[in-house]
Amino acid sequence: MSKLVSVFIIGLFVLVGCQPEEVIWQKGNLHTHSFWSDGDDFPEAIASWYRENGYDFLAISDHNTMADSQRWLKIPVGHAREATFEAYLTAFGPDWVEYRIEQDTIHVRLKTFEEYASRMGQKGEFLLVHAEEVTDRFGNRPVHINATNIMEYVQPRGGGSVVEVMQNNLDAILEQKARLGAVVMPHINHPNFGWGIQAEELALVDGEQFFEVYNGHPSVNNLGDSLRMGMEKMWDVVNTLRIRDGREMMFGIATDDAHHYQEQAMNKANVGRGWVMVKSNELNPEALIGQMEAGAFYASSGVSLREVTFEADQLVIEVQEEEGVLYTIEYFGTLAEHDPAPTAVVHPETGEQVGWRYSDAVGRLLQTTSGTTATYTLTGDELYVRARVTSSKPTGNPNYEGEPESAWVQPVQLAH
Fold this sequence. Notes:
Elements: E1 4-7, E2 22-29, H1 43-52, E3 57-60, E4 72-76, H2 81-92, E5 99-102, E6 105-109, H3 113-120, E7 127-138, E8 141-148, H4 162-180, E9 185-188, H5 199-204, E10 210-215, H6 231-244, E11 251-255, E12 275-279, H7 285-293, E13 297-300, E14 305-311, E15 314-319, E16 327-335, E17 343-346, E18 353-357, E19 364-370, E20 373-377, E21 382-394, E22 404-412
Parallel strand pairs: 2-3, 3-7, 10-11
Antiparallel strand pairs: 1-2, 2-12, 4-6, 5-6, 7-8, 8-9, 12-13, 13-22, 14-15, 15-20, 16-19, 16-21, 17-18, 21-22
Helix pairs in contact: 1-3
C-alpha cells in the first residue's frame, strides 16, 4: 500500500552525511457505520473498500454498540439487501459467512469486531480500531460523540442541557480511559447535525480536544445556513472563546460518516469524502492517537500535503500537487485585540433565538497565497493561526454542488 512520505527537517541545517528522518502520513477514517447499526453493508466489505482504496486505518463506529455480541441480520428474500448479501457471500465464501434461510428470510450472523478485525487487518499495512458512536440527545437536539480505541461499551448518560449531555458522556469515556490505562480518543461529531450543538456550548466542554470540522454526510450542514454558522466559523469561535478562558485549543478532523455503500450519490452518505492524515511512523492506536493529540495531523477532503511544519514562529505548508490543479493556501486566526461581542440571531418566523453571530474579526483571513508552498510568520498578536488549502479540482463525489477538494491544518500558537 502506498503512503505519502515527506522529509521532516528540524531547524535550518542538515548535517552533511546525515539522512533526514522519513516521516509517513497515515490515512484514516474514524467515523463510519455498518449493519451493526444504520449502515447498509457488512463490516468486512466496508473494511475491504477502505483497505483497497489507500487507507491505513479505519474505525467502524456504530451507534451505541461495540459489535461484540451475537447478532443476526434478517433479510427477506427478494429485498434489495439480498444483492448485498450475495456480494458478501461471493467475496468472503461460505466457510466465513454464517447464514441460514428460513421461511423466505435469510438470517446472517454479523461478525464481531474481533472477528472482522482479525480477518481484514494487515499488520503494518491496515489497522482496524475498535470504536463506538455514543449517540445521545437533549430534547430534540442530537449529541453524538465518537470514542476511538474504546475497550468497553459506553451507555449514553443524558443530562439537563446540551453541555451536560456532552460532559457526562465525555466523562464516561475518559473514566474508562483512566481506569483501564488505555489510549482512548473521544471526538465531538457533526455539531450542526440537527443543529444539535452550538459553538458556545462546544467551547465549554472539558476534556475534549477534537471535533469534526468536516463530515461527508449530506445532512450535517457543514456550511451552516442563513441563521447558523458553518463548521469553520464554529472552529474559530470555539478556539477564540477557549483561549480567552485559558483553555486548550480544539483540533478539527474530517470524516466521511459513511452509511450508504450500495449507491453513490450526492444525497447519500458515501465513503471517501473525508479523512485524517496522521504523521506517524507507527501504525497502532497508541501512536496514531498520540500524534493527533499533539496536533501532528491534518484533515482532508481530497488535498494531500507533502509537509506541515511549525517551528519558532512560522507555519509552513507544502502541497503534494497534482498536475493541472491550482491551490490556494489561506491562513485564518483571531487577533488578541478584537471585538468579542456577538449579536443574537433570531429566527424570523418563530422569534426564537437560534444562536449568535460573531464579527469577521473572529477567525479573520490573515494571508492568502496562490501556489503549492506558503509560510505564515506569527507576530504574537494572534490568539492562534490555522490554515485551509483549497484546490481548483472538485471532489469526485461531493455532498454539495461544486464542493472543492480541501485540507485543513490544525491551529498553532506562539509559546508564552
